[in-house]
Structures are given as C-alpha cells and as structure tokens.
C-alpha cells in the first residue's frame, strides 16, 4: 500500500451496483455510523463519507456534526451514543492524537462502547494498533473490495453482529501478554552507560490510564526506579542489576493491575499487559504454607518479572516453548519463565 500522504481520493474504488439497505434508525439513534479520524486523513475520509451517504447511510463526523459550545469529549460521547456503530480510521497520526484522547478518557465512553460495534479501518500497514483494539478484525483500505465489505458491515443490524469480531471489550484474556508503548527516560540524550534514566512520574501515560486507576500507585512504582540513579556507581553491571531489582519492586505493585515493566535499556522500559492471577494461584497450590507461597511469589516478581516482561514485549524467550501447558494461552507464563530461569540460575 502507498504511504498515507500519497493516497488520493481516486484510490477509493466505487461501490458495486448492488448495495445492502441501511438498517432503520431506532429511538435515540440519529446516525448509522460515527467516524473518528485524524485531520491529516481528511481527504481520504471525506471521500469515503460521501460514498457512504450516497448509499443512504447517515454519517456523523466532527467537522460537520459537533455542536459549538461543547467540549470535544462531550461531543464525542453524544455522537457515539446517537450512532449505531463506530468507525475508526487508523493511521499513525490517529493513534498518536485521536485515540489517545479516547483512551485517556475511556471512562466517559466505556458504557456506550460496550454496546456499540467498532469497525477499525487500517489506512496503511504497520500502524501500531492500540491494546483495546488488537483483538478486532480490521478492514484494510488497500483491499480492492474494501468499500463493499465495509458497507456490508455497516448495513448489518447490530444484533446480528453479536458474535462477530467487530465488538469491543472482549474478556481480558484477549489482551493477555500484549505489549504496550514503552516508557522513555526524560534524560535519555544525556545518559552515560553506567547511569539509570529518570522517568516522568507526573501523570500516568495515556496507554495506562484505562488500566491503572490509582495514579499514585504508578507514581510510586516509577519513583522506585528513579531512586537507582541516586546510587552513584560507575559499574555498569551494578546499575543494570539494581535497575532490574527496582523494576521488580515496582512490578509487585503494578502486577495487581495486570501491568509489568521490564528493563529494555537504562533509558527505556518495556510495558506489558498480563494477568498473573493463575500463576500466583499456582504458587499457592505448590506450597501449602500460604505465607511461604506469598513470599516466594513476591521474590519471583522481584528477581524475574523484569526479564519476563521484556521477553513478552519482544515476543521471544531464550529457551524453547515448554511442552507443558502454562497459564498464558499461546505463550510462556510467568511460572514457566521462573522455572526455566531457576534451572540455570539461582535467586540473586
């Protein structure tokens, strides 16, 4: 597919002569679809809107339908409520701007989005898809039959889409093991190889706001990592070891919200969304003494969670896939990782 800036309106192929009939609008519904897009994708999106409206669909979009005097968030919430479906035009700029706005204020939309089918359109390959959309089936703008496939989805009544993959907020297992946008040190440009980066604790990053509700919990975790820089030592191995341990301490806190950090480098921290509940239960089953089981579980988090998070983020583990079934569907669970590490290493 061509770069997004070179996509012309001519690239949108005409709809076939035989098109589905739009479903009837019910009480409280004013539109068949609300389209959210970045202003940089204006030309492509508006050509699409014209074709959809020519087929009888009522389309809602911010340039025309947002009411003056109301905030962007208020307008978006109202438009989603009044629309049968939500179409997201996914491009790099959309993910950086519009989706961050949606995700950072997801509490405003959660109730209505849980009942609205989401139709993601991938405008170009390689877009970093947000966590809460990664399980959905995408329509690709480069597909020659894209418009007819899109029209078929938009003209299918919502109740007939209940079992489809265009519905949001599937069970958490859908997201388990997914990498999030990493954290970069604010002073990465001036770091020496034996220095630990400083990471901002002013607010929870956009990609974590839906997951971590208690901002103070996140700040506490980041401050644990930042404290390593106070240990003045020009031994690079010492800094790496201390940083991993500090991240392990942070993970004891963040794992309650299904988030783990991993040291990718002294200036970059990997983030993954992963539930360790079943692994923690596995510790309890293996050790009859509950106090001992909890102590060993936290010790495992302290020494091994940073490496585990990095492996999940890179989708690569330094050992073959275990033959036994773990607690992470299609991947290596924390129990299995700890077991493999202890077979070649010891508690530090």
Please supply descriptive tags for the structure shown above.
348 residues; alpha/beta; five-stranded parallel sheet; three-stranded antiparallel sheet; 13 helices; 8 strands; 13% strand; elongated; triacyl lipopeptide binding
Structural notes for this entry:
The chain is α/β, with parallel strands linked by helices and 348 residues long. Helix content is 39%, strand content 13%. It has helices spanning 42-54, 62-65, 72-81, 92-96, 98-104, 106-113, 146-154, 206-209, 215-226, 236-254, 277-286, 290-314, 334-344, and strands spanning 31-36, 59-61, 83-90, 118-122, 139-140, 178-184, 259-265, 268-273. Strands 2-1-3-4-5 form a 5-stranded parallel beta sheet. The radius of gyration is 23 Å and the shape is elongated. The termini are far apart.
Quick description:
By secondary structure, the chain is an alpha/beta fold.
Widest beta sheet: strand line-up: 2-1-3-4-5
Head-to-tail CA distance between termini = 50 Å
| Fraction of residues in β-strands | 5-15%
Share of helix among residues?
25-40%
Please tally the helical runs, counting DSSP H or I stretches of 4 or more residues: 13
Which structural category do the helix and sheet elements fall into? alpha/beta
């Amino acid at each position: 597919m061509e770069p997004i800036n070179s996509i012309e309106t001519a690239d949108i192929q005409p709809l076939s002569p035989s098109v589905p009939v739009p479903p009837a609008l019910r009480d409280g519904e004013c539109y068949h679809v609300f389209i959210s897009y970045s202003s940089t994708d204006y030309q492509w999106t508006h050509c699409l809107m014209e074709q959809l409206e020519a087929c009888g669909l009522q389309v809602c979009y911010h340039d025309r339908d947002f009411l003056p005097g109301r905030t962007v968030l208020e307008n978006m919430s109202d438009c989603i409520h009044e629309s049968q479906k939500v179409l997201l035009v996914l491009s790099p700029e959309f993910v950086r701007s519009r989706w961050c706005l949606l995700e950072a204020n997801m509490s405003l939309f959660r109730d209505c989005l849980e009942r609205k089918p989401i139709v993601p359109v991938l405008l170009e390959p390689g877009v970093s898809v947000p966590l809460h959309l990664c399980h959905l089936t995408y329509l690709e703008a480069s597909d020659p039959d894209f418009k007819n496939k899109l029209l078929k989805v938009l003209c299918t009544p919502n109740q007939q889409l209940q079992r489809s993959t265009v519905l949001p907020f599937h069970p958490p297992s859908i997201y388990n093991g997914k990498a999030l946008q990493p954290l970069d040190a604010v002073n990465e440009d001036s770091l020496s190889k034996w220095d630990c980066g400083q990471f901002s604790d002013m607010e929870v990053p956009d990609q974590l706001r839906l997951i971590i509700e208690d901002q103070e919990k996140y700040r506490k975790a980041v401050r644990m990592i930042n404290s390593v820089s106070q240990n003045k030592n020009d031994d690079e191995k010492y800094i790496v070891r201390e940083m991993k341990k500090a991240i392990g301490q942070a993970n004891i806190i963040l794992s309650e919200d299904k988030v783990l950090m991993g040291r990718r480098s002294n200036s970059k921290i990997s983030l993954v969304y992963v539930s360790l509940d079943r692994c923690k239960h596995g510790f309890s089953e293996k050790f009859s003494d509950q106090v001992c089981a909890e102590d060993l579980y936290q010790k495992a988090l302290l020494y091994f969670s940073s490496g585990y998070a990095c492996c999940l983020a890179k989708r690569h583990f330094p050992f073959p896939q275990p033959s036994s079934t773990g607690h992470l569907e299609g991947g290596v669970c924390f129990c299995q990782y700890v077991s493999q590490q202890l077979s070649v290493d010891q508690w530090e």
